[in-house]
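Homework-ish question, so no full write-ups if that breaks the rules, but can someone show me the predicted structure for this set?
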Amino acid sequence: MLFPTIDFAIFFAIAFTVNWLLNPYAGPWKLAMIALSYFFYGWVGWNYCLLLLATTLITHFGAVAIHGSKTDRSRRWAMTISVAALLGLLGWFKYYGFASVNIDNLTHAVGLGRAVPLLQVALPIAISFFTFMAVSYVVDIYRRELEPARPLDLALYLSFFPHLLAGPIVRGNELLPQLRKRRNPNEVDYSRALWLIMTGLFKKVVISSYVSTAIVTPVFTAPSQHSAPEALFAAWGYAVQIYCDFSGYTDIAIGLALLLGIRFPINFDAPYTARSLQDFWRRWHITLSRWLRDYLYIPLGGSAGSDAKTMRNIMITMVLGGLWHGAAWTFVFWGALHGFGQVVAHLRRRRRVAQGLPPMADGPVRVWSQRFWTFQFVCLGWIFFNASGLSQAFAVLGRIFFGWGSPSPLVNPLLVVVVVGTIALQYVPSLNVAKLQATFSRQRVAVQIGVLAFVLLGITTFGPPGVAPFIYYRF
Amino acid sequence: MICVSAFGVWLLLFAPMLQHNAQVSPVGTRRTVALDILGPIAALSRGVQLSRIVSETDAATGRDKNQPGNGSTLTVLGASKHPTKPRGGTSTSTLPPGATTTSTTAVNILHPTAANHLRVLIVGDSLGLDLGGPLQNDLANTGVVTAVLDGHESTGLTRPDYFNWPAELQSDITADQPQVVVIMIGANDPQDFLGPPDVPYTSPQWNPMYAARVAAFMQIAEKGGAKVIWVGMPPMQSGDLSAKMLDLNTIVQQQAALQKPPVSFISSWSLLGNPPGTYSAFITNSSGQEVNVRTPDGTHLTPAGGEVLSQAVINYMQNTLHFVLP
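A: Not a homework solution, just the prediction itself:
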């Protein structure tokens, strides 16, 4: 079920009512919210609910086994088997088709014949998100950072519909305590929730859709038919499109959860103001970044060892992070590109330290230069991220470098204002945004209703006919 | 309270539009329930003149319902046609560097050049988009073709109330004056014609009615003198859908042969099957490599699958229609 649809509006009206009616009764509330979440997920395809159920069961029994193990060795085995089972499901559904065709072609090329059966497995929506949540839960229990939750709590933690389809990837210690206690309707900041939902809808339905149809899709579909400025704006435009799409989704998810009395962590913090790739990953898809850091990069050794090991760990983390987004070489390349960029930055820092030089002074020119080049590097990565194949990505890049001197009718003033304006808005201090939110919250109810209805009118009027699925639904 | 009220205001404003969308959505329980719920709300909206705010805004922003296609907000959009393509005139917005689209009546269109591009229009549903992307790019790569892609997901010829393809095609032809039109459409068509009177898909009247619509669509495409290529539907993973596609292909192929001049029909049935004519997600290419040509939904094409059809269309243009393309 897509958030910006009438189907979801009706669903949420029911969920909202049920949530607060059953709020005083913990057991029935959990059961009802689980049922609603499974209904929400089943709207896409009922058979997917079985996968979610299987993941929940593996996670539960794995957690119980880890917790009940007497020795460290048996704990480790229980954790390893649980994580392997969870990742095995993810691997089967998400990567088998990609892996099999590549292995098959490789074995065929070296004369070993057809070694792997070719099967196309349907990719269940959201599997990457709830699998990562399940893995973090199991590992947290192994690390004794979390006690096993009751089955109903765990089932709701994994399936809770506001985060189910595309995150945020919420940790057990963030969500489980909230599910166990009764929520106080008087403590809910409804105005903030509605603000988030409206801004999320506007970002997704109006900005992201406009940029996609105005420049990104035409250029990526037929790169050779477009000039360098158009290709450049398509790359920048995709940066705007994916930010508005994904952060818009997150805003809506956080707002919806807030209306139900649940708080989610933030997932974006003005990512295009980042001064380095490391900084970018602290601001972009924050809940995935910290997952990769805590459950992959640090267990690999992080930056504690030699330079070579640190570089290896960065590359493994970023390539696997890229592969998490999809089973395609473009995502591998995208991850590797970000890994390479961070490795170079790491080596430059180390060299400066080795030379005994102090950190460089942060003058405005240096700061803005860092921001500019980081953004360009991120956009370079987005070209591979959005392309249907490496050849298409290189075709777009080719136009950027060699397509100068021809007309660029797609680059019109409105597009420039939308792309530049959306990026510029990230430089508005979050304090000012909070002030604006607070001002909205202080208005009389009638004014707030009027503003929201007006924004809805704007979204429906300026949005395209129809709603494209969120980009991150694919992952 | 605020949320419910704002939603209520919005619902009142847009109830007539939502009702219209429900009317044009696929026949079924969801449509029936939506119409039952939205009917009284839309009547109230019209009664208190609230709906006029929306209709006036739509008219002011050029989104009134008289536009070609009359797209519905219930569709899920895919890659759309060139958004800045001007209507009612020669297109310049899609031109590759250095090309012109001056009238080519005096120029041999079989030998397009960098100065005199061949104009190709590609139209279709979601499968048409799957073909259209690679085809548009491949044609543009020749350096002598300007290709315009106009694709709309979840559309077809059965439900002009949902999306009016004949009007859309007419509009495209007026705007782009294509010399070649490539059509791939039909995956959503095995459904009832809505009347009155309704014509169920299973009724004996359905095939002649569909054939008439296909013929009319082909005639619009050919009216400006363009060569028309219709790409048939491929086999589907669902046996039932596959059988329906085979029936549609038969109708299209028959109508193609009846047109004057005949419309070219390219069968994708054998191109995307392994063995030919049987659904397969993978096919073996000429280098002996396995290529994934279908998406996991068992219906649509991957970019590689679209590329297979694109090459088939280009080969057909070169070998059968005798276009000289680099």
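Now go work out the reasoning yourself. Hint: Chain A is about 70% helix and 0% strand.
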